[in-house]
Structure formats: C-alpha cells, structure tokens
Amino acid sequence: MQVELFKLLENRNKFCYKIIELFQVEQDWVEVQTVSTNLEISERSVQRYFHYLDETIEEYNQTNNKHVKFFYEKFKGIKLEFSDSSVEQLKIHLACNDENLQLLLDLCLLKTDYIKKYSEKKFISIYSIKQSVKKINQLLSSFNLTVDANKLEFVGEEKTVRFFCYIFLWTLFKNGNWPFEYIDEDRLHRTVDHVEDRFGYCFTAVHRKKIAYFIAVCLLRSKKKFFIVDTENWDQYINFSAFRRKELVKTVERDHQVFEENEFMYIFVILEMTHWMYRPGKVKDLILEHHQTRNTDVYVATNLAFKKFQKDFFEIPNGMQEIFYTFFFCTHLQSRIFPGIYFDLDDFTSLGESGFPKNLTMKLKEFIREMKVLSQLEIFDEEELLLKRYLLLFSYFEYWSSFEPKVEIAIDADLSFLVRERMRKMIQNHFDRRYNLEVIISNPSLKRNCLVVTNMPSINDTNTGNICVVDPPLRQKDFLIIEKRVDKLLRELY
C-alpha cells in the first residue's frame, strides 16, 4: 500500500518525501548534487523543492509545537536536525497535508460531506476535489471500489471498504498518533487484553496495535450506520458459539455498544485470515478443528494444495510444516472472503522486481490451474493472489533461482589469479539469490547461456560470444552492467 499511496502524492510532495527519506540514513549535510542524482531532477529543481520543504517544516513546527531545524547552504547542501521529532513524523505530516491524501483520509475517517459543502469547509475548489477523486478512483479500481464524486463517500461492498480503510490508515499512521478522534484507544487495548486472558494468548506489541486499528475502523463505520449486511457463507468458517462461551462477544457488546451479530462475524473472519493468529495455542486449534469438522472448502483446498505443492516443487522441512500449512490456509481463506481483490497483506512488493521469476511464475500458474481442475473450487480462481502468496514461500526458502535457466559467467581478464578469484566470489555472492549462476575462471564456452566478463573489450574482435566489460575493482556500476547483460541474456534464453 505504501507504493500506491506514494503515487497519489502531488509531484512537489513526492520529491520532498524523497528528500526527507534521505535523512533516514544520513545524519550530516547532503549535497545538492547528491539529492539531484537520487531524485533524477536538475539541481535548479532541487533548490526549488528545498524552499517548499523549508515552508513545510516551518508549518509542521507551528502546528505540532516541534523544533525540526532546516539548514541550507549553497556549497554544503541541506541538513535536517530532529531534536524532538523524527523523520517518520515529518513524512506523516507531509502526506496528511497533500490534497489527494487528505481527501482519502477524510473519506476513511468519515469526515466528508457533499462536494459543495466540503469545498467551502476546506477552501478547496470543486474542480480540485474532482481531480483528486479521479486519482483516488484509479487506486481504488483494483479493490472494486469507487468514490461518489458528488456525495464524497465510498461505493462498493462494505467488507471491502472497511478493509481498505484499515490498510490505508495503518500504512499512514502506524508510526504516528492515533487517528480515530472519538474512539478510545485504551478501551480497545483492554478488549485485546480480554482476548489474551480468555485464550491464553500473548500478542506482540505490533499485533495488538493492528487489532486495535482494525476494530476501530469497524466501530467507526458501524456507528455511522454503514453495516455489514451480508455475511455470505461465513458461518461455516466461524465457530461463533465458542466465542460466545469465552464471553468475548459479551465484553465487546458492553465496552463498545456493538450488538449486531454480522459485525462480530466480520471481525472474527478477518482475524482468521491473519497468519499471526495461528501461533501454537487454543486459537489455532479452535479455528482448524472447526474447519475440519465442517470440511470447509478452505480446509479441502489447503490439504490438496499443501500436499501437491510439496510433490511438485520441494519438501517443506518438518519443523516448518505447521507454519506453512496455516500460511496456505490463510491464503485460501482470503481468496474466499475477498474474491477478485488482491490485498498485499504480506508486503510482496518488498521483494521488488526479483519477485517475478519468469519460469517459476509459469510453473506456479500451471500448478494453480491444475488445482482448479482437481478440486473444482472457486478458491483457485484467484490467480493473482495465489501466485504472489505462493511465491513468498520460495523467497523464504530462497529456492526460486533454481527454477530459472542457468547462466554461466566466465571471467577472462588481464588480472592475476588471486584478483580474478576474488572477482569471481564477489559476482557469485552478489547475484546468488537472484539468478541461477555459475561463475568460473576458465576459457569461455560457445554456449548461448555463457557471458564473458572482462576488462579487455578488444577480445570481442575474436570472440562472437556475449561480452560484458567491467573496470576492476568492482563497484556498484559494474554490478549494474553485469545485471543488465544477464537480464538481456535471460530474455534470449526464455
């Protein structure tokens, strides 16, 4: 979600956001040229964004009674000092004051009105609001949601609206202040304490906070009369009577004035969808035993997929089988609760482009289609969700490069044996997890999958193979050159 929200920012806020991020790793002065290179814009543009950032920081200090200091000198560059604040808090302020994100935030917190009233209240033109709605709708399209440009409210299934609001607010405020103005955070944490007491469970600090955010979104929307109308087939997934026996329902009714059974069903089914709920204990046993008794489609799909996955790809070690069985289970449950929608709950985007190995992707797509034929279950219609979640298994075990075509890198350079050997190890270690590589020091072969790394471009006159010229000692630019040549070679091999 972080990537999607960044795309929503206005251009000047995008650049200022990137400038602020530089100070997560830099404590001292950052030169204008360095900023220009990182942002890929001219130095004159950088100086213009410096002035805007200075104004933003001044506004941040006045609004929040903070003392972030901004320094700029022509030949030294820029420096930020955070005495009583942090980079994260400044980034949150920047995001919350962006026109597009401010509208989305108001939509999630139910602070909007008809467009004319909202325009007058916020001193923003109707045209600007409509432009923001267009950008927000581009983001929401992948969630099967839209924003009504006149009423300024979400249009779509309530279960999806709530879950989107939760992910958006969590992404934006997880390192900031509690964003729910009229919902008592301490009371919600006491509810989480009650869950721990009743089930003998202990949540981490992060998980406690995530549960509080999710329930807060549900309370906010239900109090504003946005209800979960249809619970579909959730009753087969939820052992509602067991939760009643634990007096969990009664506690929430008393503390938060929630009395609709559908509201509880929604909260329970979403919690069942989160993998960290399945640590060894009563909760895991309660959920899985109920699914086994009912022989649910999620349970059947998980057993089939878990067995066939190990047969077709690799054996999951005994000590890890339970963890990854529940991972499959949560994936298939998400597929049933949100069909046609992909929520990146496991931060798949953090894998970058290396998260899409071509051969393995094709094999997994074939696996999913075979599972569909074998099981005849709708769960396996959600190819995008299943593909990305299954790929995460390979990223954990670091097996995916073995499914890709093998590339041979032969080092043929005017260097001593020891330097060539060090160069071989550096290349092997740098690309080991991304490519199926074998780096050798020998005469290059004439095979199509062979790439010659050298510091002598003149050998290309007599060798028709793939030549990659570097300049030892190897630096970042040399690794980028090799990477581009390997990618090009792989495209030819596929």
Order of strands across the main sheet: 6-5-7-8
Q: Sketch the major β-sheet.
A: 4 strands, parallel
Q: Give the total of beta strands.
A: 8
* Mean of pLDDT: 87
Please tell me the total number of domains: 5
The portion of residues forming beta strands comes to: 5-15%
Look at the helices and sheets and give the structural class.
alpha/beta
The residue fraction in helices comes out at 55-70%
Oligomer state equals: single chain
What are the secondary-structure elements, in order, as H or E?
Answer: HHHHEEHHHHEEHHHHHHHHHHHEHEEEH
Outline type: globular
Low-confidence stretches: none
Q: If helices are DSSP runs of H or I spanning 4 or more residues, what is the number of helices?
A: 21
Any idea what the radius of gyration is? 27 Å
* C-alpha termini separation: 32 Å
Description:
There is one protein chain. This protein has 21 helices and eight strands. It is globular and about 80 Å long. Helix 10 packs across helix 11 and helix 10 (185-199) packs antiparallel against helix 13. The model has no long low-confidence stretch (mean pLDDT 87). It folds into five domains: 2-93, Arc Repressor Mutant, subunit A (Orthogonal Bundle), CATH 1.10.10; 99-156; 185-290; 295-401; 405-493, Rossmann fold. The chain is an alpha/beta fold. The strands form three sheets. A four-stranded parallel beta sheet has the order 6-5-7-8, with helices on one face. This is Mga helix-turn-helix domain-containing protein. It comes from Candidatus Enterococcus ferrettii. InterPro entries: BglG_antiterminators, Mga_HTH.
